[in-house]
Amino acid sequence: MPVVDRTDYNAVERYFESFRQKYEQAFIRTLKYVALRVVTTARRKGNYLDQTGNLRSSVGAVIVIDGKILWSTNFEPAKSKSRSSPKGTSQTTATKNGGYDGRRFASELAKKYSRGVALIVVAGMDYAVHVANRGRDVLDSATLEAAELVPKMLAKLSSNKRT
After folding, report:
1. In terms of Cα–Cα distance, which of 113, 145, 110, 140 is closest to 128?
2. Residue 130 — φ and ψ, nearest 5°?
């Protein structure tokens, strides 16, 4: 009696595709979580005087898949330090220039990742590197946090634990 293969290979393929999609969604959720954590860290722990708010506003992150931005933080305007107004009262201003520059810089970097997945965290102002070179924490704390957080989160993800 011959053995007849009755396997529905289309069903098997659908099953594995469904599994791949669920894993990819969990992976993207994990990257979003990491991005939000490190951007928050960079904005809060930055030990520099941000007079205009541009540098903090330019801090953000994007998730790139095959050269295309899938998701990004909103590069929201940070409040600058209080300044004295002509009437002697202090006022707090917010700026949008930094957010624009941050998003533009992240978009430029995203083009360099034409294959695969990348999480890009930026401080998009031209002078960010000069501030960092003067010993100020622009992205240092965020980088350290990401280096610690990413392996932990990916280990949880690969062991099928809820993230």
Report:
1. 140
2. -70, -40
Region of 54 please: left (phi>0), alpha (psi -120 to 50) or beta.
alpha
Q: Could you state, in order of their start, the residue ranges of all structural domains in the chain?
A: 10-82+93-158
- Give the integer Cα–Cα distance in Å for 137 and 65: 29
Task: Phi first, then psi: give them for residue 52, nearest 5 degrees.
Answer: -95, -15
Q: For the segment 107-162, what is each residue's pLDDT rounded down to a tens digit?
A: 999 999 999 999 999 999 999 999 999 999 999 999 999 999 999 998 998 886 54
CA dihedral 15→17→21→26, nearest 10 degrees, is 60
Non-local CB neighbours of 46 within 8 Å, separated by 6+ positions? 55, 56, 59, 136, 137, 138
Find out whether 27 and 156 touch, Cβ atoms under 8 Å: no
Residues linked to residue 72 through DSSP beta bridges, in sequence order: 62
Identify the sign of the CA torsion 76, 82, 85, 89.
positive
